[in-house]
Amino acid sequence: MGGRGVNAKIREAAKSRSANTFLTQRTSSLSLYQVSHRTTHHSLLYNYLHKPTHPLLLIKPLFNSFSSCSSNAFQLFNEMPHRGRESEQTLFYHVIGLIKSFTARPTNVTSRIAHCLAFKVGALAHLPTSTSLLIAYSRAADFSSSWALFDEIVYRDVILWNAMITASVENQCFEIAVNLFLELMREKEVGFDSTTLLIVVSASSHMGNLTQGRVLHGISFKTGGLSDSFLCNALIDMYAKCGELSLSECVFEGMECRDLISWNSIMRGCAYNNYPEKCFCYFKKMAYSGEEADNVSLTCAVSVSALLGKLSFGQAIHGWGIKLGYKDTSHNSFENSLITLYSQCGDIEAAEILFKEMKYKDVISWNAMLEGLALNQRIWEAFDLLHEMQFLGCIQPDSVTVITIIPLCAELMFLREGRAVHGLTVRREIGSHLSVTNSLIDMYSKCKDVKMAEQLFKAIPGRDLVSWNAMISGYSQNGHSREAQYLFKQLLQSYSQFSLSTLLAILPSCDSSEFLQFGKSIHCWQTKLGFANNSLAVNSLMLMYVNCGDLLACFSLLQTVSAAAAAAADIDRWNTAIAGCTQNGHFWEALKAFNIMREEPIIVCHDSVTLFNLISACGNLELVFEGGTLHGLALKTSLESDIRVQNALITMYGRCGEIEDARTIFRLSCSRNLYSWNCMISAFSQNKDGRKALELFRRIEFKPNEITIVGILSACTQLGLLRHGKQIHSRVIRFGFQGNSFVSAALLDMYSNCGRLDTAIQIFRSLPEPKRSVAAWNSMISAFGFHSNSRKAIELFHEMWESGTRPTKSTFISLLSACSHTGLVNEGVRYYNNMWELFNVEAETEHHVCMVDMLGRAGRLDEAYEFIRQIPTRPEPGVWGALLSACNYHGDLKMGREVAELLFELEPDNVGYYISLSNMHVAAGRWKDAVELRRMVEDKGLKKPAAYSLIDVGMG
Description:
The structure is a single chain. The protein is mainly alpha-helical. It is built from 54 helices and no strands. The two termini are 79 Å apart.
C-alpha cells in the first residue's frame, strides 16, 4: 500500500472518532472485569452493526447505536454460558499470557488463533494485547492483517504507533513507515518518543535516504532524543549505510554514554565503508576502554582481519574469543568468520579443523567452508562437502550455497557438475531466485552451452540488469557477436540505467574488422555514461580496437588517458595493449609497445604479465636472442619464479629450437603445474623428439587435459606409433575429450599419418555435425590429400562449405596441397583465384608455396616463375625454394641457377639449396661446378641433416 493510501486510512479513522466512541481508557480507569464485560457485550453487536473488513477483526463498536440494539444484545448474552467474575478474570489473564507467548515465533495460524481467543474473551480493547497481536501478524509476514488491526483501533498510544511503524520496517514497507511517522507528528493527543525516532531512522537506513536521515537527526537534537544511546546507535548505523562514515564518527564522538552496541555500530560502519584500518583502531579503543567484546565485536574484528590478510591478528582474536567463552556456543557467527579468515589467508587446514570441531553449525558455516575450499583450489573436496550437506536433516543447501558452487563449475568448465547443481536447485525449489538463475546463465555460457543459457534467460519472468549482462557476455564470449549486439540493442530499449558490467559484456563481441564501427559507437556510449577514465573500461576498449585491427586507435587511446587515471593503473593499460597485440598476431607491435613503455617519462615497471606476453611474442617470431634478453630481465627483476613466465620461456625456447634451455627451465622449476608439463611435451614434439615427449608423458604428475593429449598425439604422429596412438585414443574416450575440436583433429592426423585412413574417416563421420570444427574439416581434407585422394578432398571441401563452416587459410593449404600431389592443376588454380573473391581468405606464404609446387610438379616452370613475380609482397625464401626443387626435378639448370643465386643471398646458411643446385649440375654432367658447390658447403661448415627411419621397438 502506498503512502497516500496509508494517510487516507489514518485520516478516515481519525474523522470517525467524533461519531464513534471506543473504550479509550486503560485498565487503570476501568476494572479489568468492566473492560472484559463491556468488550464482550459489544462484540455481540459486531455482526449486527457492521460488515467486517477482515474475517477475524473486531470493527469499532458504536456506542451511539448501543441503546437501539441493547435488547437484542442482552438476549444473545443471556444465551451464552454464564461464568463467575473470578473465572472470567483468570481466563482473561491466561489469554493475554498466551498471546504474548505467540509473539515469540508466530505463524499465520497461531496469530489467527490468538486473535480469535482475544476476540472471544473481549481482550481486544486491551491495548497491550492489541499491540502484541499486531506484532505477531507482522512477524508472521502478514502485514495486511497488522494494518487492518491497527486501522480498527481508535485510541492509539505511542507504543501502538511504534509497533505499527516497526511492522512496516520489518516487512520492507519503508515508505509506509515514514508516512506513519509523519501522521504521528500531526497527532495532537499522542506524541512520539525516542523509540519512534529510532525505528524511523532504521527505515531511512534501509532506504539509503541520507537527506531524510539528516532531518530525523535534527528532530532528535531538537527534542533532546540524543541522550538516548539506542537512538544514537541507530544514527551511527544510518550514516554508515548511507556512505557518510565521517558523520557516523561525529555522532559516536558526541555520545556521552557509549555502550557495547555503540562500539559495534561504529566498527561495522567502518567495515561497511571499506575502512578496515579504522575498524581496527576502534576495536583497540574499545578494548582499552574496558568494554568487553561480544560475539558481534569479535566477528567484526575477524572479518576485518580477513580483508587485510592479517592472519596473526585474527589468531589473536580467535584466542580472545575462546577466553571469553564464545567457542562452542549457539552464536556461531564468530566461528563462521574465523573459517573465512583462515580460508582467505591460505590456512585451509585450520579452517577445516575449526569446521569439524564446531558443535553448532548453520547453513552459513557450511557455505563459508565451501567457499574456503573453492578459494584454495580444493575443488573436489568442495563438491564432496556439498554432497555431504545434502544428506543432513537439519540443514539444507540454500541459494547462497548454490551461488558459491556454480561459479566454480563455470571457471573450471565443469558442465556435468554444473548440470547436477542445476538439478539440485530445481529439486530444492531454489531455482526461482533470480541470483541463482543469473549464476546458471553465466555457468552455461562459460561451459559453451549457449542454448541452455538462452533457454534460462528467456524463462526469467522479471529479468534484472545482471540477467541481461550475463546473457550478452555469454553470446560475446562464445563467438555469437551478432546475437550479443542484437540483445544489447533490446536492452537499450528496456533500461535507462546501465552498469560497467554492461560495457564489459558487449565489447568482446567486437572481435573483427567488420564490427569496428559498432565498437566505436560503444566507445561513444561509454564516454556518455561517464566511464571514460575507468581502468577496466579503457582496457576493454583498447583490446576491442586491437581485435578489430585498429592498432592506431588502441595506442592513441592509451596515450590520451588522463594522467590522474593512468597513474593508478598504467601497467595494466600497457599490458592490455601488449597482450592484445600478441594474441592477435601483431608480435612486432607488441615488442615495439614495450620499448615505448620503457621510454615513458613516468617510469612504468613491468610485471609478470608483461614478460609473459613479450616472451610469447619472441617465441612466435623465433627471436631467441630477444627472448634470452627478456629471460635475463626476468632474473634481474626476480620474476623468473613466476610460473607463467617459466612456462612462456619453455615454449619460447622450444619454438626456437633451444630444447636444452627449455629442459633446464623445466627441471629447475619448483612449482610446476599442468601447463608446465604441456609446454615441455609440446617443445619435444615441435623439435621432432617424439620419444622424449612420450617418456615425459609417462612421468606426468597431473591428470592430463586436452592440451596434453594434443601434444602427445602429435608425438605419436611424428613417430608413426599407431599402437601408442591407440592407447592415447582410449584415454581420450575415458576422459571424455572426444568432443574437443583440437583433440578430434589431432586424432585424425595421427590415424591418417599412420596409414589408417579408414579409421580417420570413421572418427570424422562419428562427430556430430555441430561439433565438426574447422580443424577437423581441415585435418580430413589434408588426410585425403596425403593419401593421394584429391577428388575426395575436393568433395569434402564442398561439403564443408555447404554445412555452413567457413573455410580458413589452413583449409586452402590442405586443399591446394591435395591438388598438387595428384596433378589437379586447373582445379588448384581455380580455388586459389577464388580464395579472396568467394571466401574472403587472403593468400599468404604457405598458399604461394603450394601454388609454385603444384605448377612446378606439372612442369609449368615458366608459369611458376611468373606467379612468383606477380606476388604483391616480397616472396619468402620458401616460395623460391619450391621453384628450385621443381627445377631440380625437371632438370632446368638455367632457371635453377638463377633461382639458386637469389636463395644464396636470402638464406646463405641453408645447405639444401646448395645440394639441389649441385644435383642439377651433376645431372647436366657439369661435374666441375658440382664439386665447386660441394667445396663451398664444406668451407661454410654446412651439413645436411642425416635421414633416418623409425621402427617401433622398445617404446612401450
